[in-house]
Write a structure and sequence with these properties.
Layout (H helix, E strand, L loop, with lengths): L1 E6 L2 H14 L7 E6 L10 H7 L6 E2 L7 H19 L3 E5 L3 H12 L3 E7 L9 H12 L2 E4 L2 H9 L7 E3 L3 H14 L3 H5 L7 E4 L3 H4 L2 H17 L2 E4 L2 H9 L4 H5 L2 E4 L4 H10 L2 E4 L3 H9 L3 E3 L8 H4 L3 E3 L4 H12 L16 H14 L1
Helix pairs in contact: 1-7, 1-17, 3-4, 4-5, 7-13, 10-16
The protein binds uridine-diphosphate-N-acetylglucosamine.
Length: 365
């Protein structure tokens, strides 16, 4: 089976790593090509993850870069079509919900190539979120839908997807986390940053709804300023957020409060910081899941989540971007009223093996 797997943006790299490892155990069955669209291109947003996670250098790099949604999506489609026509793969594997995921799915399906989506069925029901559009378009087209939990299965069934397309495999990002946790724990990142274990929070913030909208951005910063009086906050800043903070003249806010601003971090460094954190504040998707597996309380700075299992079973609480709600929940954690969580079914480090097991079954058919 000739397979092209696609990555483009930071959250894709930790998802593809265990799949490549599992595919490489069956080189007699699979001819695998790794393609990087170039959606993320800074070394701190891309190269460092290849090094940390031992992902082989991409066989093909499209070098598409940034742009508006239509530009980025369109450019990926134009370039990816040429590759598909030349290589004629039997299967394209896409992961997550970024523009690269949707662009490559549409391109491959228009050429009648089978596509498998890893992390299918997640729904926030928030159509202002670009990722929700990517998820819907991707899932409706894909042939094999690998899901992380039963909520995702139910979402797909409710949309009329037939059962034989849906394969509940668990969470590949958790494969990566469990594989690297011990090594990450031995790093001295928190010491270098100047914080002590369980006495600080980590923060990620980059959603357009939080940082492109000035009022929302300021509300969140005001809440963070108050939290940081009790608990220092370590903040590896995303390029989008840095750009918007500069545009709105808000960079001084971090210096004036107990917020340690860092450049984007590699996988192992950030995992070290999260293992040792008292609390995780985030608007990203993956971190809601990682905090659940690490058993660290997580406050999600969004109005909704496509990963409800992290709230129902894990350590996650949705707090939106209103200052009052953020502070109310943050102080519960600071005062030790910690949310206990459980680890969801099949988030056990073997999801990629299940995916490859399913593909081997297709090979035999
Ligand atoms: C993308 C994903 C988002 C994911 C996030 C993780 C989509 C729609 N969004 O958002 O789901 O959570 O990645 O980071 O696909 N930039 C750089 N260097 C880079 C990449 C981006 O400076 O290597 C800057 C550019 O100014 C760019 C902006 O960040 O315009 C936004 O990048 P883009 O890939 O469009 O979206 P993200 O906000 O990173």
């Amino acid at each position: 089976m000739k397979i092209i797997s696609v990555v483009g943006a930071r959250p894709n790299f930790m998802k593809i790593a265990p799949i490549i490892m599992a595919l490489n155990k069956h080189t007699d069955k699979f001819e695998h090509t790794l393609l990087h669209t170039g959606q993320h291109y800074d070394s701190s947003m891309s190269d460092v993850f290849f090094a940390d996670l031992g992902i082989p250098k991409p066989d093909i790099s499209l070098g598409v870069g940034s742009g508006s949604h239509a530009e980025q999506t369109g450019n990926i489609m134009i370039e990816f079509e040429k590759i598909c026509l030349a290589m004629k793969p039997d299967l394209v594997i896409v992961v997550g919900d970024v523009n690269s995921t949707m662009a490559c799915t549409i391109t491959a399906k228009k050429l009648n190539i089978k596509v498998a989506h890893v992390e299918a069925g997640l729904r926030s029901r928030d159509m202002t979120m670009p990722e929700e559009i990517n998820r819907l378009c991707t899932d409706v087209l894909c042939d094999y839908l690998y899901t992380t939990d039963h909520f995702a299965d139910e979402n797909l069934r409710a949309e009329g997807v037939s059962d034989e397309k849906i394969v509940f495999v668990g969470n590949v990002m958790v494969d990566t986390l469990l594989h690297h946790k011990e090594l990450a724990a031995t790093q001295e990142t928190y010491k270098k940053v100047g914080v002590t274990p369980k006495s600080y929070a980590t923060l990620t913030l980059h959603r357009p709804s939080n940082v492109d909208d000035k009022q929302n951005f300021i509300q969140i910063l005001e809440a963070l300023a108050e939290i940081s009086q009790k608990l220092p906050i370590v903040f590896p800043i995303h390029p989008r957020t840095k750009k918007m903070a500069a545009e709105y003249n808000l960079i001084h806010f971090f210096d004036e409060n107990n917020i340690v601003l860092l450049e984007p971090l590699g996988y192992l460094d950030f995992l070290n910081l999260n293992i040792n954190a008292k609390m995780i504040l985030t608007d990203s998707g993956g971190l809601q899941e990682e905090s659940t597996v690490l058993g660290v309380p997580c406050l999600t700075l969004r109005e909704n989540t496509e990963r409800p299992i992290t709230c129902v079973e894990g350590t996650n609480v949705i707090v939106g971007n209103s200052k009052e709600k953020i502070l109310e929940e943050a102080f519960k954690v600071i005062e030790g009223k910690k949310t206990e969580g459980e680890i969801p079914e099949k988030w056990d480090g073997h999801a990629a093996e299940r995916i490859v097991g399913h593909l081997l079954g297709l090979e035999e058919k």
